[in-house]
Amino acid sequence: MSETLAAAWVIARKDLTIEFRTRSAFFSAVVFALLGLVIFYYAWDPTAVAAIDLAPGVLWVIFTFSGILGLNRSFGVESADHAIDGLLASPVSREAIFIGKAFANLVFIGAVQLIAVPALAIFYNLPLQHIALPLLAIAFLAAIGLVAVGTLFSAMAVNTRLAELLLPMLALPFFVPIVMAAAQATSKLLSGRPLAEAAAWIKLLLAFDIVFVVACALAYPFTVED
Amino acid sequence: MTASGPRTAQQLLEVAGLSRNFGTRRAVAGVSFSLGEGECLALFGPNGAGKTTLLRVLAGLLKPSAGVAMLSGISLPGGSTVRSRIGLISHHTMLYDALSARENVSFAARLYGIRDPERVDAALDRMSMLVHADTSVRSLSRGMQQRVSIARAMVHSPRLVLADEPYSGLDESGARALSSLLRELIAAGTGVIIVTHNLAEGLSLATRAAVMRSGSFARVDERATLDSASYPDLYRNAVASIV
Fold first, then answer.
1. What is the DSSP string of B18-73?
2. B142 and B167: one domain?
3. Which of B138, B157, B176 is the last residue before a domain boundary?
4. Does one domain contain both B76 and B18?
């Protein structure tokens, strides 16, 4: 297990180094998230819908779609000049490749969230200070589920001609339960309800995380078998 | 036809009845051969003969549809132990263009559990790329990228080298460096299978030469019995039915 984790870290570090150098996907995702916030803001009628009712939906819509930009890149870097062959021919396990890719994607989505959440608070004038920790926990749990599913489908879609179109088509249906639980839990927190009321949704989020992480890690080796 | 014969070297690779289908198309059709330590099999053949597919099966990138391949007694595609003994060179560089030459080779070394930076530098130096070690791969010429790719494949000192068109993109000095490296490896007991369209380059390294046609071996010759000058005619006759 320690060998798998060590190899996963080597792969994640390589992916993060490449993203840090190019910053192409990260800037695209952040710009997309901020533009999404602006568009929702100007489409919003504050006299009809309260900010705390709209914000959770806005937050999770922009996280989902900006996350897909990063997930598309995840295996895209491996397809250039068949770098994936070097990975698959190496002695690292397929699970290590999946975990490494997923971890890099988790950092990517986490970094986008760190910029998008304060931006949301500014646009919608939301006092997030008192719920910052539980909101971070929800964002983290949801990101785990999103990257598990997204990493698997990124691996499946990368060798197709319409990879950038196929990934959202494959992944979005599986994102629904994660986004639904995260949005509901966020809504409870923003509306000032006791944490216990959000707990059921957080537990559901945790359950989906466990199922998706295990299922996707087990399924991944079959996506690279040829 | 098989490429097995009385071998004195210790057996490294045993392939028996290996086939690989893509749908209804049979890319590799019942290939059998063995390769000993310090032997080099040069594989020739026209495009679509199944050479690259055979190498990809042996590298563990494709599953065989039938037959077996055993490396040091372990069935392919095996686990991490057997994959750590194989070095794969391809006409695709398998490099990340945002990383430097050293970072690419170092990444590959770490995948093989090697953390010694001196081995990374030694591999780059062997292909005369140490001077460009910190240059981003995207800034290197195609030939230099191929040299880095070869360093990447050799950094873990593989027991079996699978080289698919390894001279692709190399200039004369790069080709010389690669030939010299492969000769050293063969002399040290490494098994090499080289796929190339250049008969002279292949024969200069080979201890055996095989011609593939339609997924199987059309002819196999011991290098010692071959005359380099007449081999192009033998090759043309072997592939004549489809050219």
1. EEEEETTEEEEEEEEEEEETT-EEEEE--TTSSHHHHHHHHTTSS--SEEEEEETT
2. no
3. B157
4. yes
C-alpha to C-alpha distances, B116 to A28, A153, A166, B33, B160, nearest whole angstrom? 37, 35, 41, 36, 22
List, for residues A167-208, the tens digit of each pLDDT value.
Answer: 889 999 999 999 999 999 999 988 888 888 889 999 999 999
pTM value?
0.89
pLDDT bucket at B184, cuts 50 / 70 / 90: very high
B125 touching A (Cβ < 8 Å): no
End-to-end CA distance of chain A: 25
ipTM of the complex: 0.88
pLDDT, tens digit, 9 for 90 and up, residues B105-161: 999 999 999 999 999 999 999 999 999 999 999 999 999 999 999 999 999 999 999
> Which helix (H) or strand (E) element contains residue B17?
strand B11-22
Check the CA dihedral A11-A14-A16-A22 and report its sign.
negative
B208-213 vs B216-222, strand pairing mode = antiparallel
Query: In the predicted model, what is the mean pLDDT of residues B191-218?
Result: 92
Nearest CA in chain A to B110: A10
Q: Which domain holds residue B223?
A: 11-85+158-238
Question: For an interface test with B, which of A90, A101, A225 has the most B Cβ atoms less than 10 Å from its Cβ?
Answer: A90
